[in-house]
Specification:
Length: about 250
């Protein structure tokens, strides 16, 4: 082990001890996996290679999350905006994403859930995603939301539409449904319904915006922006995010 690696390990151990002493970590973490293409460009590699390296990072991060006591992780793997990319690149990206989800399913530790609009995805991609998710229904470890074909505005629109259709199907008029409409009704029809809202959202690549990720759920969420591109995201970066979260006073609007 070289001097640099030894120093890195020592710092990692220091962060771990500090977090254990604080004892208050996030229950639900959202992760925006950003920077794969820019990482590839700097490396002189293809965009597909960058996406593959990013996919290979996921299991590590899930393991770090579980070790830290996190119960739910939401991974934003493909946005609704990404669906407008060049056909060849999009096709390769979808294949990499589905392969990554299938590998997570075969691992057997994670309970997977797809969050996003399946109708926006090719039928075969949706079939494979659903099969992978279904195969993990008995897993008892970390709950992992794979956000594929996901957009925050799209999710809210879907939630409102779902509520309205349910009311009409129950025999109510649109006027009656609108009259009883409330904030709680949207929450009950989100893709993540029944789950705790994210305590912490991490975005890699240095970009400091959410781009619509979990818009409704993140009203009281803490945010951590990391300069590393997603393929270069290290355990020490993850621990720094948790330390930043632990150092904040969460008032939840009060």
């Amino acid at each position: 082990m070289g001097i640099r690696e030894a120093a890195y390990r020592g710092y990692e151990a220091l962060l771990t001890r500090d977090l254990r002493a604080r004892g208050s970590g996030p229950c639900h973490i959202g992760v925006i996996l950003d920077g794969n293409r820019r990482w590839a460009k700097l490396s002189g590699a293809s965009a597909a290679h960058g996406h593959q390296r990013g996919a290979d990072k996921i299991t590590e991060v899930l393991e770090w999350s579980q070790e830290s006591g996190v119960e739910v992780v939401t991974l934003w793997m493909l946005s609704t905006d990404n669906l407008g990319r060049d056909g060849a690149e999009l096709g390769a990206l979808l294949e990499i994403i589905v392969d990554a989800v299938e590998r997570l399913a075969r691992d057997g530790r994670w309970r997977l859930q797809h969050v996003g609009d399946s109708s926006l995805l090719p039928a075969e991609i949706t079939r494979r995603l659903n099969a992978a998710v279904d195969s993990t229904k008995d897993a008892s470890a970390l709950h992992v939301n794979v956000a594929v074909g996901y957009g925050g505005r799209h999710e809210i629109a879907d939630a409102v539409r779902s509520f309205l259709l349910a009311g009409v199907a129950a025999g109510h008029s649109l006027e009656e449904v609108a009259e009883q409409f409330s904030v709680e009704h949207i929450a009950a029809h989100l893709y993540t319904k029944g789950q705790p809202d994210p305590d912490l959202v991490i975005r890699t690549s240095g970009e400091q915006r959410l781009s619509g990720f979990l818009m409704w759920q993140s009203a009281h969420t803490e945010f951590y922006f990391c300069d590393a591109y997603w393929p270069d995201f290290r355990r020490v970066d993850f621990l720094r995010a948790l330390r930043s979260y632990a150092q904040r006073e969460r008032r939840r609007g009060r």
